[in-house]
Amino acid sequence: MWKTIRINAKKDLIKTEEYKDAYMGLGGRGLIAQFLNDEVNPDCDPLGEEAKIIICTSMFAGSGLVCANRLSVGAKSPLTGGIKESNVGGSAAKALSDHNIRSIIIESKPKTDEMMKIILIRSDGTISLEDATSYQGMNNYEFVENMQKKYSESISVISIGVAGERLYKNSSLQITEYGTNYPCRAAGRGGLGSVLGSKGIKGIVIQQADEKSKPEYADREKFSKIRKVLNKSVAEASKTNPYSLIGTANTVDKTGVAGIIPTHNFTGTISEKIENLKSDKFMDFVNKNGKNQQPCQVGCLIKCSNIIKDNDGKFLTGGFEYETIALCGPNCDIYDFETIARMDRICDDLGLDTIETGASIALCMEAEIIPWGDANAALKLYQQIADGTELGNLIGQGTVAVGEYYKIKRIPTCKNQAMPGYDPRGTIGTGFTYATSSMGADHTAGITLGKDDPTDLIGAVQTSNIMQHIFAMADSMTCMMTMPTLGGQLDQLAELYNAMYGGNLNADGLFAAADRTLKMEHEFNKKAGWKKEDNRIPEFFRTEPLPSTGKTFDIPAEMMEV
Amino acid sequence: MITVNDQQYEFVESMTIAGLLDFIKIQQVMSTSALLVRVNDEVISPAAVHQVFINDGDILKIRNLPMGG
Q: From B52, which residue of chain A is nearest by alpha-carbon distance?
C-alpha cells in the first residue's frame, strides 16, 4: 500500500499516513485535482499559511509501464491564481516509488525568520528535516553537487534555486535527470518553485531505497502481459518517431515554416534565420559534443531528451526542448543554439521557467530596454535575474508583471501565464486551449497542432476539448509523449488499470476519469475567482493577422465562455 | 461505401471505428491507430472509437493524435 508523507513546515512535523482509500487509483494530475479540492481553500494566498503543495507520482509509477515514472507537482499557482499541475520526468518519481511513497504534502508555513530545511528520505526509509542554512542562496547545480557529496552520487533531488527562494512567480522546481543526475528537468510552469520556497524547503533529497518496494497488483500476470504489448508498441513507434530520432526540437521544422513559432514577441514575422534552428542544424549542434536520444527517466523508450556540452566538452544543459528554443530564441529574435542553450542552463540553475522567462525578455526588448536579437544583452538580463537587481526581480515575477510595468499593449498571456511555442493564430484549437484550460496558456494542457489542425471553429473547439482530456489522462499516468501511440490503445490502458487497481474500467471510463479531473480543476478555479469572461485571448491576436497565413484568431469570445 | 480521408473503403457490418483504424494501420495507410477521428464532421474521442460503429456512407477524416513539447 502506498504511503503519503505529510510535513508541517511550521512545526517541523513529519507524519507518515496510509494512502487514503478514496485516492486509490489516482496519481499525478488526477490526484492533485482531488487533493487540492479536498484540502486547500481555493481562495487562499498561494504563498500563505493555508496553501499546500503536493508532490506525487503517476498512477503507474514503479510498474514498468513505458515512461510512467513521472512526477507531478501541484498547488494553487501564484502566477495564474488557479490550480496548477506541473508534470516532469527525471529520477525522483522512481526513487519515491521505490520507497513506496505516492505523495509528499507540505503544509503550513515557517515563521519568516526561520532558516530553510531539506527533506531527507534516507535509504532505510526514515525521513528527517535537515538544516539547509548553508545552502540558502545556492542555485540548483551547486546544491545538487553538495547533496551528492554529502548523501551519495546516486540520490535523486527535487530543489529550488534562488528564484524559488525569492518567491518569484516564474520559479520552477528542478529535478535530477536519470543518467546524468544533473538538475535539468523542470516542473516549470505556474511558479510552483515559490510555493516550495514559501514553505522554507530548499529541496527534497531521496537516497536509493535499500529494499525497493514493488507496487501491489490486482492481477500481476495480466498487468505484465498488457504492459509488454503496450511497451513494445511504443518502442516500435519510436523507431520512426521524430521526437525519438531528433527530440522535441524537430517541431521547428513544422512551426518555423508555417510561421506558428513565436517570433519577435508573437508578431509572427518569419526570419530566414529560422533555418539555423531546423532539425539538421540541431543534430549538428547536439552531436558536436553531446548526444540526443537520452531518456530522462527510468523506463523511457522514447528518449526525446539530450545532453548538450559546451565547447570545452563540459555538461552545459540537458532536456533542451522546443519550448525553450522557441521562447528564448526566435521570440527574442535570437537564432543560435549555443546562446539559447546557455539561457536554458541559467534558467535551470536559478530555477526559472524558460517559457515565461523567454516571453518576459521579449517584452524587455519591446520596451527597448535591450535591442531585439542582442544575445549578449539578453544574457546580461538573465544575469540581472541571478543577481536579484530591481529589473531582475521584475522579470522573475512573470510576463504580465513586465508588460504592465512597461505599459506594453501586446502581452502574450492567458490567465497571467505566458503562451508556449505555438502562435494561437496559426493553431486556433490550441489557442482555445490556452484561453479555456484550467492551467492557463500551457501546451501540455492540450494542443491541436499538426497536419489537418482544424481551421473551422467547431472542429477546432471539439479537437481542443478532446485533447484537453487526453492530456489530463496522460498527466495522470505516463508521459504525454507516449500518447501518439498509447492514445490508440485506451481499451488496453483501461485493462492495465484494472490489472493494477481492480475493477472494470473501460476506455470510456478512463475518459470519464479525465473529465472528472478537468471538472475538479475548473471547480477549484471557479472558487478561486476565475470567471468565464476571463477566458480570453489577448486582443492583438484578433486584430493583427499572422503574416504566414493572413489569419487572425477568430473563435468568438462567447464561444470561449465555457 | 465509407470514405476515409477521401479514400473509399467497402462498408463492413458491425465494425467499430477502432476496428477500422486497426484495419487502416495494417494496410499501412497510417502508421498508428492513435488518431483523432471526425465522423461526418463530429470529432470522436479516442475512447469512443471502441464503442461507435461505422455506418454505411460515413465520411471520416482522421489525423495523428497531436503532440508537441
A: A508
Determine how many CB atoms are found less than 10 A away from the CB of residue A391: 16
| Residues A407, A382, A423, A83, CA torsion sign | negative
Whether residue A459 and residue B41 make contact (CB cut-off 8 A), yes or no, is: yes
Exposed / middle / buried, residue B40 (Cβ in 10 Å: 0-12, 13-18, 19+): exposed
pLDDT digits (tens, 9 = 90+) for A164-208: 999 999 999 999 999 999 999 999 999 999 999 999 999 999 999
At A294, list the grid cell: 537520452
Instruction: For chain A, report the end-to-end CA distance as a whole number of angstroms.
Output: 39
**C-alpha grid cell for residue B59?**
465520411
How near does any CA of chain B get to the CA of A405, in Å?
30
For residue A269, what is the DSSP state? P
Q: B42 — contact with chain A (CB < 8 Å)?
A: yes
d(CA A261, CA A258): 8
Show the 3-state SS of B39-55. Answer: ECCEEECCCHHHCCECC
Residues of B within 8 A of A459 (CB-CB) are: 38, 41, 43
Provide the pLDDT for residue A289: 85
* Residue B23 pLDDT > 90: no
CA–CA gap between residue A381 and residue A375 (Å, rounded): 10
Q: Do B46 and A490 touch (CB under 8 A)?
A: yes
Q: What is the count of residue pairs from A and B with beta carbons less than 8 Å apart?
A: 101
Which residue matches cell numbers 485533447? A467
Q: At A241, give phi and psi (nearest 5°).
A: -80, 120
* Contact in structure between A365 and A372 (CB atoms under 8 Å): yes
Kindly report the pTM of this predicted structure: 0.97
Q: Among B51, B61, B69, whose Cβ lies nearest the Cβ of A322?
A: B69
pLDDT band at residue A113 using 50, 70 and 90 as cut-offs: low
CB-based contact (8 Å) between B50 and chain A?
yes
Tens of pLDDT, residues A406-457 = 999 999 999 999 999 999 999 999 999 999 999 999 999 999 998 899 999 9
Q: Determine which of A67, A238, A322, A462 to mutate to test the interface with B (most B C-beta atoms within 10 Å).
A: A462
Q: Domains plus CATH for chain A?
A: 3-206 (3.60.9.10), 248-405 (1.10.569.10)
- Run of H or E residues at A369: none
A463 Cα to chain B: minimum distance (Å): 7
Q: What is the mean pLDDT of residues A211-222?
A: 96
Q: What does the pLDDT look like over A31-82, one tens digit per residue?
A: 999 999 999 999 999 999 999 999 999 999 999 999 999 999 999 999 999 9
* Nearest CB to B43; choose among A421, A459, A490: A459
Cell of A444: 501540455
Amino acid letter, residue A144? V
Report d(CA A422, CA A224) in Å as an integer: 38
Q: Given A443, A486, A510, which is nearest B68 (Cβ)?
A: A443
Chain B nearest CA to A307, separation (Å): 17
H/E stretch holding A368 reads none
CA–CA separation, A227 and A499 (whole Å) = 10
